UniProtKB/TrEMBL annotation:
UniProt entry keywords in alphabetical sequence: DNA-binding, Transcription, Transcription regulation
Taxonomic lineage from the root: Bacteria, Pseudomonadati, Acidobacteriota, Terriglobia, Terriglobales
GO BP annotation list: negative regulation of DNA-templated transcription
Alphabetical list of InterPro entries matching this protein: BlaI_family, WH-like_DNA-bd_sf, WH_DNA-bd_sf
UniProt keyword annotation of Ribonucleoprotein present: no
Family: Belongs to the BlaI transcriptional regulatory family.
Native species: Edaphobacter acidisoli
Name of protein: Transcriptional regulator
Gene Ontology MF terms: DNA binding
Length: 126
């Protein structure tokens, strides 16, 4: 089953959950910078929708609030985003890599890591 698509806000909420583990809606909302903090009800509605999608789960009730935890891994969510990005570029990684290099967002260390991964992949295929 493919991982559900996450909106920008949902991904930001997931980042909080991946970093903190079990977290209340209030704690999630307060983790946003004050100037860009969404309303409590916005976070609440989004978390409930994420629960319906199967990306977060309620783990326990404490007093009058619930604690939520991530149900999907960061790797799974990142794979989904990368697949979507590649789809925009016709499934070809070369234009993405070229843009990253030209924009200076890919460091020499990143290139060396990519070369290392390619060598490992090549060795597996032999």
């Amino acid at each position: 089953m493919p991982e559900p698509k996450l909106s920008k806000l949902e991904f930001q909420i997931m980042e909080v959950l991946w970093a903190r583990g079990e977290t209340s809606i209030r704690e999630i909302q307060e983790s946003f910078p004050a100037r860009k903090r969404p309303a409590y009800t916005t976070v609440q509605t989004t978390v409930y929708r994420m629960e319906t999608k199967g990306v977060v789960r309620r783990v326990k009730k404490v007093g009058n609030f619930h604690l939520f935890a991530p149900y999907i891994s960061r790797d799974a969510a990142q794979r989904r985003l990368i697949d979507e990005l590649l789809m925009i570029f016709g499934g070809r990684p070369q234009p993405v890599m070229a843009h990253l290099i030209e924009s200076g967002k890919l460091s020499l260390e990143d290139v060396k890591e990519a070369e290392k991964a390619l060598k490992q992949l090549s060795a597996k295929e032999k």
